[in-house]
Amino acid sequence: MLKEFKDFIAKGNVMDMAVGIIIGAAFTAIVKSMVADLINPFISLFTGGIDFINLFVVLGEGEFATLSAAQEAGVATFAYGSFIMAVINFLIIAFVVFMLVKGVNKAKDAAEGEKEPEAAPAPKGPTQEELLVEIRDLLAKA
Length: 142
Fold this sequence. Notes:
- This protein is mostly helical and 142 residues long.
- 70% of the residues lie in helices and 3% in strands.
- The relative contact order is 0.06.
């Protein structure tokens, strides 16, 4: 059983998956920073500086200026602004990943295009039946 486990771990697919997960985690930090620090400020310019995070409805008693103040007080809230922000972040991240995959595929296609094209298969000659028909026809003419 230990040998089977070693074989499983040593397979290329498992190692590729592990590398993909590690790179994905590192890439997630980069994309989150890009969204939070670079893209969201531009979105707030176009939306008049609306902070979606602080859009909420208090379901309990009291009035609170911010979502975090309401949550610290332990009051139930309907934080629809956080949901809107999560949807916007998802769309931005999905678009960035799409562009990244598109660029990688384009680079991969360009690298594959540089390889020598495979030689076309040689044209097939006549079949045995076609040759026999041709010989018969020649003998009939003679």
